[in-house]
Specification:
The structure holds two protein chains of two kinds. Chain A is mainly beta. Chain A has no helices and nine strands. Classes of the chains: A mainly beta, B mainly beta.
Chain lengths: 106, 121
């Protein structure tokens, strides 16, 4: 069981906006930044968001991150079929990972 | 183009040893901290170990402390993970990963494709 709690699954239809939550505590999310990773089926993870809300170059602005207190969220707007993947939050300089959320595009 | 190429995975018996290597190219290897992250079959990501750019500082997850050793050879642009006393629960794909820093926080900005380690008799 991961210290960072994510919903095991999420879904949406093309064009929709979906959010994935990551819940922690004052000792992890509450005192450290959160990073988000996308893992497409059969591939290595890829950085999506770092330091709560920073987007690396090359990541579409449809992806955004936010944090409030001991929880963080990843929002995906204009959902596309290629967004179907597993999403992981991470904290404590990536030494703690959430259990992952499988996103299905209906 | 940045590349991290892991090797050394395979089938090993419980109690055995294995050394993973990760050959880096496309960036100044000696300027970056590196880490190993693993993923058991069908499971999520688990941080295993990290090492500073110089190799002078190393960090381990409690689950592998005392059994695994991370090291690097900056002259060869290569990261290593020596794994001893392997257990069935160490079975996973092991990813080599490059770390970067933003303000005072770290993140993983590039991952290799991974190498599978299977611990079984």
């Amino acid at each position: 069981q991961s210290v960072l709690t994510q919903p095991p699954s999420a879904s949406g239809t093309p064009g929709q906006r979906v959010t994935i939550s990551c819940s922690g505590s004052s000792s992890n999310i509450g005192s450290n930044t959160v990073n988000w990773y996308q893992q497409l089926p059969g591939t290595a993870p890829k950085l999506l968001i770092y330091s709560d809300n920073q987007r690396p170059s090359g990541v579409p602005d449809r992806f955004s991150g936010s944090k409030s207190g001991t929880s963080a969220s990843l929002a995906i707007s204009g959902l596309q079929s290629e967004d179907e993947a597993d999403y992981y939050c991470a904290a404590w300089d990536d030494t703690l990972f959430g259990g992952g959320t499988k996103l299905t595009v209906l | 183009e940045m590349q991290l190429l892991e090797s050394g995975g395979g089938l090993v018996q419980p109690g055995g040893s294995l050394r993973l290597s990760c050959a880096a190219s496309g960036f100044t290897f000696s300027s970056y901290a590196m880490s190993w992250v693993r993923q058991a079959p069908g499971k999520g990501l688990e941080w295993v170990s990290a090492i500073s750019d110089s190799g002078g500082s190393t960090y381990y997850a409690d689950s592998v402390k005392g059994r695994f050793t991370i090291s690097r050879d900056n002259s060869k642009n290569t990261l290593y993970l020596q794994m001893n006393s392997l257990r069935a629960e160490d079975t996973a794909v092991y990813y080599c990963a490059k770390r970067s820093q933003y303000s005072s926080s770290w993140y993983t900005d590039y991952w290799g494709q991974g190498t599978l380690v299977t611990v079984s008799s």
